[in-house]
Write a structure and sequence with these properties.
334 residues; mainly alpha; TPR-like_helical_dom_sf; 4 strands; MalT-like TPR region domain-containing protein; Serine Threonine Protein Phosphatase 5, Tetratricopeptide repeat; single chain
């Protein structure tokens, strides 16, 4: 095994050196000695371009990922975990789902060659692949790989294992994102049932997330009363981390449920907690925690002409708007 370093010689590239070095300090097989320095440089150039443009310029990132994948195969060989990851990077950026799945299956084939077909060690790579696809909103493909991971987890750990419960939970989250509400409810409730009976720390953490997802399901399907119980259960565990983003999202979900039920006093409690956890900076743009969309039926017969208004108001200690006054308007009659 040889530890290969790519040295950046040009002064104008100094700012990139640290990232580049992290990307290319790799334990390479001995056949790399036969590869030219140009291959290594081309690989690192392509990978760095992919990493820098993945979020800002998907077209450019896709071409860079393709180059890194093809060059990497020459450098590292076919049956290598790095090649599987390079294939996944490229496949996720492909817009054609059939082509994308073909490249993803190449990655899975590599994992199978390394770990063995149907081996327990395949569970996590398949789940990780599902997670990466879900992060890019490729929900259909994400579900397929999660299902394959689920089948292996059932075989190796049993139907009631926390590993199976965790994968059910991910399938529920993907279905909820895709607005497949019946499937989401089924998967999430299956996960909760399994995780509730498990005592390992990972299962307890996943149970909290299951409660949050179930609450989110009820909100999305406008079952506001049913949303409160699971959201309060998750908050019991998360309240020990009052400033965490997930805790604030939990409280915002409860605000939505209470406001839709006309229970503003209970909603205010969570507004105050959020206000206490986040100090306001003078140049910060305030964002509403919850907004109400007016019922258009209330405006029947009213002109649809639009005018600009400037309104002054007072926000009291509990966050309520008081004493609104119109201070300017295009329409002088208002």
């Amino acid at each position: 095994m040889v530890l290969a370093f790519v040295i950046v010689l040009r002064e104008r590239q100094l700012l990139k050196t640290q990232l580049l070095t992290l990307l290319v300090i790799l334990f390479l097989p001995s056949q790399v000695l036969a590869q030219s320095t140009a291959d290594l440089q081309d690989f690192n150039s392509a990978y760095l371009e992919y990493a820098n443009t993945r979020n800002s310029n998907p077209d450019l990132a896709r071409e860079a990922a393709r180059r890194a994948y093809n060059i990497g195969r020459r450098i590292f060989g076919e049956a290598n975990e790095r090649i599987a990851m390079l294939a996944i990077n490229y496949a996720i950026l492909l817009t054609d789902e059939t082509e994308s799945q073909s490249v993803l299956d190449e990655a899975v084939t590599i994992y199978q060659e390394i770990f063995g077909f149907g081996n327990e060690a395949m569970i996590d790579p398949l789940s990780n692949l599902g997670q990466m696809l879900a992060d890019f909103d490729r929900t259909h493909l994400a579900s397929q790989y999660y299902v394959r991971s689920l089948e292996l987890a059932r075989t190796h750990f049993g139907e009631d294992s926390s590993k199976v419960g965790a994968i059910y939970l991910e399938l529920g989250a993907v279905a909820l994102r895709a607005e497949q509400f019946d499937t989401a409810h089924s998967r999430i409730t299956d996960a909760r049932e399994i995780l509730y009976s498990s005592t390992d720390p990972a299962a307890r953490s996943n149970l909290v997330r299951a409660d949050l997802l179930l609450g989110d399901y009820f909100l999305k399907t406008r079952q506001y009363e049913q949303a409160i119980e699971p959201l309060l259960l998750s908050l019991e565990s998360l309240s020990r981390y009052p400033n965490a983003d997930i805790t604030l999202r939990n409280r915002i979900a409860l605000i939505e449920a209470y406001e839709n039920l006309g229970r503003s006093e209970e909603s205010t409690v969570h507004c105050l907690f959020i206000g206490a956890s986040r100090a306001f900076r003078g140049n910060e743009r305030l964002q509403p925690l919850y907004t109400v969309v007016p019922d258009v039926a209330d405006f029947t017969g009213i002109s649809d002409q639009r005018d600009d208004l400037r309104i002054a108001f007072t926000v009291d200690e509990e966050g309520f708007v008081r004493d609104p006054v119109v201070i300017s308007s295009i329409d002088s009659e208002i």
